What we know:
The protein has 6 helices and 5 strands. By secondary structure, the chain is α/β, with parallel strands linked by helices. It is globular and about 45 Å long.
Amino acid sequence: MEIKTIAIGCDHAGFPYKEAITAFLRERGIEVLDFGAFSAESADYPDFVHPVAEAVEQGLAARGIVMCGSGNGVAMTANKHQGIRAALCWKEEVAQLARSHNNANVLAIPVRFVPEAEALAMVRVFLETEFEGGRHARRVDKIALDQG
């Protein structure tokens, strides 16, 4: 699957990585829906993560990337959305498994715990890895709560 559009959002801690990741994506011809933060000034991550999750749920973006200091807050916020499977990843192999086994559609990055180069490597593998389906599809299908 060719990725054409990515939604991205972060708090103040994630701002420097967001800028680097946005440049990385644009260099590869990927459109970026940037929901902020737009500076390193203190900001509340839910204000930027909810729009990322909504863009992915609505099909405006193929996948999303969210960042904060620990990655936990952004992952928790994104996962409040029924159609989101946000994975908190701290190394390339975890990001690859989040895609191939869990069909994660949002990558959550803990910027205070991974070097920028590792974050970029995780983004690359998150975009390149396809969901394996098979036995994993059965499990992924059980993640969402029944809305009926």
